[in-house]
Structures
1.
Amino acid sequence: MTVHPVPAEWARRAYVDAAGQAEKYRRSLEEPEAFWREETARIDWIRPWTQLGRCSFDEADFGIEWFADGTLNVSANCLDRHLAEHGETTAIIWEGDDPSQQRRITYRELHEDVCRFANVLKGLGAKKGDRITLYLPMIPEAAVAMLACARIGAIHSVVFGGFSPEALAGRIQDCDSRLVITADGGMRGGKLVPLKANVDAAVAHCPSVEAVLVVRHAGNAVTMQGGRDRWWQDERAAVSPDCQPEEMGAEDPLFILYTSGSTGKPKGVLHTSGGYLTWAAMTHHYVFDYRPGDIYWCAADIGWVTGHSYVVYGPLANGATVVMFEGVPNYPDHSRFWQIVDRHQVNIFYGAPTALRALMREGDEWVKRTSRSSLRLLGSVGEPINPEAWEWYWRVVGDGRCPIVDTWWQTETGGAMITPLPGATDLKPGSASLPFFGVAPQLVDAEGTVLPDEPGVAAEGNLCITRSWPGQMRTVYGDHERFFQTYFSTYKGKYFTGDGCRRDEDGYYWITGRVDDVINVSGHRMGTAEIESALVAHAKVAEAAVVGFPHDIKGQGIYAYVTTNAEVEPDEALRRELVQWVRTEIGPIATPDAIHFAPALPKTRSGKIMRRILRKIAEGDVSSLGDTSTLADPSVVDTLIATRAG
Ligand code: PRX
């Protein structure tokens, strides 16, 4: 297997080399108090913490708290403290969907905008602890709105702009937001996303919403409802540019972010202030080896956790210059990403494998016609990166010069957990490599037996984490019991990630993908249960079962088995209707790739759907279906094999 050793220059100049990594890792686990005392010094505390943590994953005394008696304000850490010396440093370089549009915003300007935005929110009655839903395009005002919430102690819940009004309404209702922040519209690949119209449709089902603050951006016509809707640009001028940051406890909530799980509705993952900010800033510092002056670009949308931790909180806490991009990788053409790299002289680029695979398919020429000489480091996140895409990223995008940090983590973890450090870790394409400081991974088999962790011995099993880390989520909003049940009840005393993983002879971790009913489509996490419940909500559908299947570009595609009501004759028109239906119920990201009309689904005698068999058929791998003797009617399987979709 190929191993790319740490380039000599990186070993010399990085914050940590291999020996430093090993030593810091050891200290983080063996001397946590001293270790975290040092690492939390990167945060400005209003009142320094004295208690490290009180964390237990056991049912009897379950709870997670870090630095609990410390106080801080997250927005002051991301803004105010940079003003004295770096006020004129560019905080955000914005690149519009339309390549002729750019904006540059200094820390001083960002600070003023955040203060004004915070004052507008206060004027609308928002206060500490309130939930505020954000549904915005990738524009600087998205960061401004998040930081303004943090400034006054309100809890933001960002909903990705690709979600439908139905999905948005569910998320507004779940956390009972009184305020929604949106834009008239966003632009993606030259197409308008009608955000305000979507909010109007959603809010019609949300009696809790009293006010909608609208950022004028795309310039499309919108309906403004008197008494409820206001333009940010109008309000901005009428408020003071000063706003005192609220003193927040380290364990006060910072944000909620909804994410999909195996069962039920999306969960409101709740992150708090002190531990989360420490984790986001610290991982950004070490993983990207960020230095003042570097131009750093994370291509994720702020609607996902990557956008929270690595577009906004981590880099801004570190005083970084961040590129923020509204558009898509292939508009106006397949060179767009690399044109942006050249235009803004980007040094660090962090993106998702799905985009790389899509660009790889278009050929090297689109990349090669750009210089990319400013690039020094590349990153990958969101899904396993196949070695072929990794090598392409390394050879073509990075010209064989830039280390690639393949960072494994989750919405729940707040920041990177298993990741190379560029000056320390030899790289194996496809492996997220080694645990970050403070992270204690463990592999267990299906019964929970711990697999031996010894040098030279490989193992494969389910990935758990045995100790808490500061960036860990603290609860599921409004349902603490669900938090415990989802993550800590499968394997007693451990956090279960939902991922399968192999550890090789050198101790490198290779994430093999989800082992639960979650699928990862283009780096977007979807619960199969959510798509199923959308399908069965259609009047002609009796039953549905959704599984993932390997997809060249998306990583995984969505394969839906649908049983129609008895009187319905399934046809092409219904297939199209159901695809459209799911897009309306959840959003375009949940578009099924295949719909397989099935007269019946394979079930056990007790009525349980045998998903294992459905996955195999969807994958086109019917040679090893395993034991089908427990099925109530084994002939169902033959029918499905004969009628496989796609
Ligand atoms: O399956 C893993 C995959 O994405 C899941 C988490 O998704 P989400 O909460 O949306 O967060 C994505 C951004 C951090 C994980 O359970 N995943 C994420 N990063 C990687 C990955 N799988 C393999 N390699 C990665 N680098």
Note: The chain is about 30% helix and 20% strand.
2.
Amino acid sequence: MEGIYKTLPQHTYSWSQGRATFYKYQGFWNVQNFPEKTILAQSYQAQPSDILLCSCPKTGTTWLKALSFAILTREKFDHASASPLLTTLPHDCVLFLENHLAKIKENPSDLPLLATHLPYSSLPKSVIASNCKIVYIYRNIKDVLVSYYHFVRELVNLSVEDAPFEEAFDDFCQGISSFGPYWDHILEYWKASQERPDRFLFLKYEDLKKDASCNVKQLAEFLGCPFSVEEEKAGVLENIINLCSFDSLSNLEVNKSGMYQADEVSGVEHRLFFRKAKDGDWENYFTDEMKEKIDKLIDEKMSGTGLVL
Ligand code: A3P
């Protein structure tokens, strides 16, 4: 497998001082060891009852995992005092196919939830064949870019001064980011959703924030676990929204410390999954030219989809 890297297009973030090199594999960029992870994930045998939470990094994956987990386990745990989310990183409650296939196979969960950042075209064939449900979350591209910039910067331990945002911006606009091009990731899922609309739920991070009740109810229905009128009256929906809110999760001890093991070699501090969660943070980073450039790019790429990034 080592030899494959010599054949793949390659790009190193100059500001990462050699610590972030990306390879383009099956049409998408990612760090070394992703071809291996993808191939392994593709051996997963999906069941029709599986529900896959899909996303590009920094679009609200952690939030979607927490909400889906809380919705599906609401009868099992008293969310105020005993939810696993109070003591476990959401990424360890709902596992990524590409990171933890062995664990998934060893301990099959009674919960049908799995997550992946893999592009639609790289999903295991069994996911498509089984016709299982897919929830896809996406977010305003400018906020994703800023979120992603800080995430990578922190991963390679650089200060803002040592990691020029301009370069991160240029790379992202060329499509070079984890699981990028971001727009192609969205477009692949969107196109598939046009063919099987009943199997897909598209959620937008900003909408989820604006109207959590409506969106979480929609998510619960899609997951096959709608809230009853009694539950709503009893505040179950509200409790789940509160438990999974940024303020709540980011202040939990478990999410402020500890290390997420993406695989044997790479770890991510839990705190890095919780930064600011502010809409429009991009305005603090983008020049007018950057805004113009990315708006033009997105208009071109997303035209005809009705998706607003
Ligand atoms: P910011 O960097 O803009 O703060 P992902 O989970 O896909 O990696 O996305 C991470 C982004 O989601 C980060 O955005 C993070 O702060 C935000 N986030 C994490 N948990 C959240 C929550 N419970 N509610 C809203 N946003 C959340």
Note: The chain has a mean pLDDT of 94.
